[in-house]
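User: tokens in, sequence out, please.
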């Protein structure tokens, strides 16, 4: 049986040390590349509108991840509220960009640890932290507390990739599976659509660190489920906004064409992208031609490992409603191998 990496860190005492070092970053916040410098230990808010206690908008068995994560009993996903980005097309905008509404979902980290144990008891295959960047210290502490009580599931870090390299280094061994969403090749697109000026630079630095930790090999258990590795998600956006081909070229040349890619077709216009002329390039779903171009770019750069969605069904189902906290997503499996 493959034990998650945090077990060894727990036994050596290193896990507690890592948590302390991560919490120290909250005093003058440098948890993400925004480097706001606010004292989150004293609940001073800045860009991500997040203080000391984490906001958990939902925790549930989720069946819409890649098959090697969802399995038959679901990924044990924890959806954090708030975000360090402001993506105008965010499918989770109800929880990522409504900090006033989400304040009611703020909980102590001890309760978060209990949620992890509940998901394990329900039979989930892993713990998937969704949008964890701004709560990385609290995430690590919850893992520590839950591990002391018997948590033994792999930890999945499902991030927008606008991550601090220092934080990622402290998460080395705590996180088993890195699941970054590599959004843009162009800084202008990152600024316009996600409201940060340096997305390509910072996300590439983060991917280099994730690759340093995990390499290109995916580690599967006897049950066929993913236990460790790096799986890079790439959402195809209309009108070439994401620069998929350029990003794939960078991964192949800088990391390796053996890195596993999860190509996603689920984009649909929502939130500000659905109603603002300023974001008209994102005002429609992708075409079959755009999807075929992305698949061709995968082949052209030698990528063979990973998953891809089915264009015909993807954007029909990935439309969460977080007013239903227990089941915000439909039970749908439309990833292809």
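Assistant: Sequence out:
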């Amino acid at each position: 049986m493959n034990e998650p990496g945090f077990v060894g860190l727990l036994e050596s005492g290193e896990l507690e040390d890592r948590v302390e070092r991560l919490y120290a970053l909250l005093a003058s916040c440098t948890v993400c590349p925004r480097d706001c410098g606010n004292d989150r230990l004293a609940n001073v808010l800045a860009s991500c509108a997040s203080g000391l206690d984490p906001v958990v908008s939902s925790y549930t068995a989720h069946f819409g991840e890649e098959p090697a994560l969802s399995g038959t009993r679901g990924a044990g996903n924890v959806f954090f509220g708030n975000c360090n980005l402001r993506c105008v097309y965010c499918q989770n905008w109800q929880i990522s960009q409504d900090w006033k509404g989400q304040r009611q979902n703020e909980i102590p980290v001890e309760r978060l640890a209990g949620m992890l144990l509940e998901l394990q008891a329900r039979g989930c295959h892993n713990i998937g932290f969704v949008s964890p960047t701004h709560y990385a210290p609290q995430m690590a502490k919850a893992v520590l507390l839950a591990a002391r009580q018997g948590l033994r599931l792999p930890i999945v870090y499902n991030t927008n990739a606008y991550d601090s390299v220092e934080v990622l280094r402290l998460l080395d061994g705590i996180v088993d599976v890195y699941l970054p969403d590599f959004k843009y090749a162009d800084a202008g697109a990152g600024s316009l659509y996600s409201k940060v000026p340096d997305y390509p630079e910072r996300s590439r630095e983060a991917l280099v660190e994730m690759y340093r930790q995990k390499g290109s090999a995916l580690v599967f258990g006897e049950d066929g489920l993913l236990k460790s590795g790096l799986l890079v998600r790439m959402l195809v956006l209309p009108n070439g906004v994401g620069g998929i081909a350029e990003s794939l070229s960078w991964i192949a040349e800088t990391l390796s064409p053996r890195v596993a890619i999860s190509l996603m077709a689920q984009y649909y216009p929502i939130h500000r992208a659905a109603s603002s002329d300023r974001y008209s390039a994102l005002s429609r779903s992708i075409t079959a031609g755009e999807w075929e171009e992305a698949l061709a770019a995968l082949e052209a750069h030698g990528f063979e490992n990973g998953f891809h969605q089915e264009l015909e069904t993807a954007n029909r189902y990935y439309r969460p409603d977080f007013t239903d906290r227990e089941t915000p997503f439909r039970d749908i499996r439309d990833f292809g191998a």
